[in-house]
Amino acid sequence: MSKADDIRKQILGLVGQYHDAKFGGRAFRPGRDLVHYAGRVFDADELHNLIDSSLDFFLTAGRYSDEFEADFADKLGVSHALLVNSGSSANLIALTTLTSPKLGARRLKPGDEVLTVAAGFPTTLAPILQNNLVPVFVDVNLGDYTAIPERIASAIGPKTRAIMMAHTLGVPFDLDCVLELAKKHDLWVIEDNCDALGSLYQGRMTGSFGHLASHSFYPAHHITMGEGGCVVTHDDELARIARSFRDWGRDCFCAGGKNDTCGKRFGQQFGTLPPGYDHKYVYSHIGYNLKVTDMQAAIGCAQLKKLDGFVARRKENFTKLTSMLKPFEGQLILPKATPKSDPAWFAFPITVRPEAGFARNDLTQFLESRKIETRNLFSGNLLRHPAFEGIPCRKEGDLKNTDLITTNTFFIGVYPGLTDVHLKYVAEMFSEFMKR
Q: Would you say 335 and 144 are in contact if contact means Cβ atoms under 8 Å apart?
């Protein structure tokens, strides 16, 4: 063992002690400590990987990135997983992939329509607009907050080429309906699975059904890298295109630090470039640099091993909150799963019934004053936000439920960091509010 190896061993040996000293927990103090809606859950494993990676000082994607991509693809049962720097970037890469000239007549072109919902997070919608495509909005159900299947079917028109929607707050949308319509009308399908890692539809993980899917590893999500995301696909061609858009738009598919994987580095002709131009510097797309660092991936490798436990805890917390808040169903619409699904709940969404006798803000301000974090269901109706006013779009019918979500819906946490003590306190505060 070299001197450097010996020092490295000593450093890593201290990580567990540091974790306990720095992050050792204390008992929850109701009314004094925050009941977070979400947060990172980790132990010494993540710190060990992070320090181990930092000591390599490779910095960009490396051995941990390779490990995560392979393990993540296996976990989802897909062929390819491509790490990116955020779930938002994953959405951008997934949709932009479908605009590639390499897809020929199948490529999405400016003016083509993409079916989606307005009740969600803006980074599902933004790539549609950024690629000069036209979003078509359908309304969602209350309770599960996913697209109304009948509206999806009636929204398909002669210009419709793709469907891109999120499994909202972990609840799978009707994949049977979407996939059947996609097959019938030759549509691309992108699953925004950022809120739903670990959710099941007919026993199969969401994020493995569409042509492409996106994932997020922001601290609020099911596993975290701090920042980070992933694009997954079964399709070899789509994977190559997605990698190109992620990696500056280059045509070469060599991994970082690798050369001449195809054996044709100096033996091809591209456009009007000189014959034999170095393939590593040939660009076939107008791309980005959206790669992840190996230190982020190192954290993800430790987190991925804990995913099943995290998901189980989310489901347990959801079930307990449902039971605790059931007495208030006269005033509140409590969340529910869609048929054939088993959600890995991101959160616990609640809609205040219009006839409840109080407003959403009355309840959320009361909860916040009692140190219980709340969040609106993201953007509510995106079309009512300044950034999206006047965008080119089409709406299939009204967005009545989406508008109600904008004024009446919020969510609280079910993430694995919440214990029975937290949940009991939350239920007590709901009861106190209702008595008032």
A: yes
